[in-house]
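User: Structure please.
Assistant: Input sequence and predicted structure:
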Amino acid sequence: QVRLEESGGGLVQAGGSLRLSCTASGRIFTPVAMAWFRQAPGKERELVASIRWANGDKYYADSIKGRFTISRELRRNTIYLHINTPLSEDTAVYYCAAQRVGASGYGDWGQGTQVTVFS
C-alpha cells in the first residue's frame, strides 16, 4: 500500500511564498503521475497541478499558472508545490495524489494540508 504524506502548509501572507511537500512511502512506488489538488470551503476539489513521473511533463490550472510551480525529486519519491504570490482565493486544503500504472485516475491520496492566505 502506498502512503502519501503532505507537509508545509500553514499561514502565508498574500504576496509571500510557501512550499508544500508530498512524500510517498510503502510499496515500490513508480506512479504514472502525481498531482496537487485543492478544496476551498464550499467548493469542489479541483486539480491545481500535475507532473508525469517519467519525463517531468507538467500541467497547471489556469487559476494558478505563473504563480505556482510543481516539481519532483525522484530519489525521494517526493513532489513539491511552490506557491508564490498567493491570493486569498488560494486558501484551501491542498491534497497530494498519485496515479498508478494502469489506473485511469488518481487513486492514492494524502490527508491534506491547510493553506491559509491572509492580507
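The longest strand covers residues 17-26.
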